[in-house]
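We modelled the chain as a single entity of 134 amino acids. Its sequence is:
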Amino acid sequence: MLRSIGAVLAGLVAVFVLSLGTDQVLHVLQVYPPWGQPMYDPGLNLLALSYRIVIGILGGYVTARAAAQAPMAHALALGIVGLALSTAGGVAMQNLSPPWYPLALALTAVPCAWLGGMLHRGSDRAPLLPLRDA
């Protein structure tokens, strides 16, 4: 049980650290407005969504890799946690972004975690293109 909680927590920590770290870099570089100010620019929100999708997939992979058994179930558990946290965050910060952005974060949480679990599943199998001896 502790290993299962740890696997989901590892994926969650990876997602938080990488997401907030990337956000911080973009704030420091003044790509994003200062923390706490609204960001309504669709291009900036698409940028944030794009790297959060990649990070969400990575979080699903980390979770699946850390799971002792049933890696896909653990990745999906991370997705469900991500869905809940994204929904709560969207409600709490509804005036800081366009309404589609938190909705997109919530709707992509489970598919991203699933993709991460699938990537882990694929890494356990033979390579897609077998290497041949020269």
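As a brief sanity check on the tokenised model: The chain has one domain: 2-123. Residues 2-123 form one domain.
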